[in-house]
Design a protein that fits this description.
By secondary structure, the chain is α/β, with parallel strands linked by helices. Helix 2 links the parallel strand 2 and strand 3. Helix 1 packs across helix 7 and helix 6 runs parallel beside helix 8. The structure holds nicotinamide-adenine-dinucleotide and uridine-5'-diphosphate (UDP). Uridine-5'-diphosphate binds next to helix 6 and strand 8.
Amino acid sequence: MTTYRYSDQAGNHAAVLVAGGAGFLGAHLCRRLLEQGETVICLDNLETGSWDRIEPLLADPKFSMFEHDVVEPIRINHSLKEIYNLACPASPKHYQLDPPGTLLTCVYGARNLLELAREKSARILQASTSEVYGNPLEHPQHESYRGNVNIVGLRSCYDEGKRCAETLFADYSRRYGIDIKIARIFNTYGPGMSLDDGRLVSNLIVQALNDEPMTIYGDGSQTRSLCYVDDMIDGLISLMESAPTFSGPVNLGNPDEATIIDIAEQIQALTASAVPLVRHALPPDDPMQRCPVIILAQRHLNWQPRISLSDGLRHTIADFSVRVSCV
Ligand code: NAD
Ligand code: UDP
């Protein structure tokens, strides 16, 4: 694959920059923005992103790719109206490969993109996470909950990096009047996740399709609230387009909470698979429960998830089936 570098080919309209646009959520977002007629610049260092995801978009003259690390200062010739910051590995398997690198990606990435927003007078959205709540002592989680994060744990490079990025966003807004939005994204899944992503849904679907035992960490009684990717993209765009008076932080997620065992059993049923569940040790600091309160999103964004877990898993399994059979 020839590296296609950003060269101001995106035309003259103020563009939307998607940092992390070659990742799972980023590629869905780039595609949706192009469908809405936007000029889109994807900025990505391809750490966990892939060319395969954005290759189909390169045919569109309104799309361009800028291969760059957000840790380094960012220079873009084009005028920008909006910046989405999704640039950070999201799966524990990936963000724990280089913990200092993950933390610096969160912090310097936020700083460099905020500086770019300042220079371009662009609105900027931070893809934060439910991980800012850590292993929550309050359930379900309201935005007002301040969290329970182990500062020196294996997950803290990500959790504290994301918390610090939120702080930078709030401070840039107060100090320089930057128009910011902060989304606290809860676990999101769907077509296009990497087969080796390492997160729950992708692991279990690949295992079921390959007739391998499904890996359950701990006793599987911990919960997650899984949001289908199309719903999440709707939420992110609604937040970006929301009134300047509303910055968040706002929870974006599906409040339909399920245990890991429930999710595994649904995947078994939908793949008509009889593979056994095999227990592995629970990773340290693995949050025991996660469920968003989404009243703020309903009220300010008129947003709530629409796709049920069973429908979302069905679409995801259909996509994975094609790709697993090609490996
Ligand atoms: P992903 O790993 O698939 O995508 C992240 C993208 O960022 C990749 O394309 C990667 O190459 C790029 N990237 C990483 N470090 C970079 C750097 N230093 N410079 C430039 N690009 C870099 O993850 P995802 O699931 O698409 O998540 C996207 C964003 O949403 C992340 O910031 C993540 O923290 C956040 N988020 C996702 C979820 C979820 O469930 N998917 C939940 C909470 C928050
Ligand atoms: N998990 C699991 N089996 C797997 C992958 C994950 O049981 O193969 C569990 C993990 O321990 C956690 C939940 O599923 O409790 C969600 O994990 P994931 O990595 O998807 O996201 P997290 O919310 O932990 O960041």
